Amino acid sequence: MDCLGVSSAKSLRALSALLSSQQDEEEEDDLCSQDVKACARLGPGHIGPLPKNEKQVSTANTKKNSKDIWCEEEVAEGSQYDDLTDPRPQPEYEIILKQSVGTEDLFLGLSRKDPSSMCCEAMLVKIKLPDTKAKEVVLDVKEKFLDLRTPKYKLGLHLPDPVHKNESKAQFFSEREELEVTLLMKRPMDFINMQ
């Protein structure tokens, strides 16, 4: 009987007294809980200076009257291209990060560039497209999504970093049957990492 740690009637009475005193404290806490509930509604968004318009803070926490499960801002970019019924296979691809390095970087170390991915300026996506001609390729680049369509292949690629979609370049090498897409990356800390 000692396996539970309660060996006598005296221990049972002490345990009972302990539990009953906790119930009394809970009843006292219910009286004070009205003030606590008002503070419990505050979250991390309430830290800092108060906004000029109080309605801006309350709209983030209120539910919309519609029956939508999610809003458009929550849906990942490029998800409209996902088609599970499309039988075309996904081609092989490879993502390579690139950075511009000069002799002053390589030999003298004058800039703060290092071999890490944070110092890379561009992303090279190599896509193998066997039995495909350049005129059959349809390519659409978004900020965080690359969509490639051919009669034989389809590729919907969520990019690891945002890119400048208007500054991307694509080149098709017919001898290798490979498409190379160079995307200039856009990251919030580039002004620090690229100096």
UniProtKB/TrEMBL annotation:
Q: Which InterPro entries match?
A: DNAAF6, HSP20-like_chaperone, PIH1D1/2/3_CS-like
Residue ranges constituting the PIH1D1/2/3 CS-like domain according to the UniProt record:
90-184
Q: Which GO terms describe its molecular function?
A: dynein intermediate chain binding; protein-folding chaperone binding
Q: Which SUPFAM superfamilies match?
A: HSP20-like chaperones
The organism's place on the tree of life at top rank: Eukaryota
- List GO terms (cellular component aspect): cytoplasm
From the UniProt entry, list the residue stretches annotated as the region Disordered: 43-65
Q: Name any Gene Ontology BP term.
A: axonemal dynein complex assembly
Record family assignment: Belongs to the PIH1 family.
Please report the name of this protein according to its UniProt entry.
Answer: Dynein axonemal assembly factor 6
Which organism's genome codes for this protein? Answer: Haplochromis burtoni
